[in-house]
């Protein structure tokens, strides 16, 4: 995946807000990996802040919708993983400041 496409995908995913926390999934550190194959299939490997999150389906749908306008992306698969587990350490400085969490 070239750097420009990766930046475009991450930029689109910054529009996906975790409804329970109010911060986007990129700055929360929920997106672990991105990969696009030659057919334009995007695989998003991500986690959620809590196992059994009732809004998992909503977030997956929002991820697919967010990247739908990127021409290189023809189809999107969202893989929710629990390993490695998410911790506050994965959050960006912006997210920590917004939530009042010390660095």
From TrEMBL:
Residues 6-79 form the MIP18 family-like domain. It comes from the Bacteria. GO terms for biological process: methylation. Pfam families: FeS_assembly_P (PF01883). Keywords: Methyltransferase, Transferase. GO terms for molecular function: methyltransferase activity. This is DNA methyltransferase. It comes from Heyndrickxia ginsengihumi.
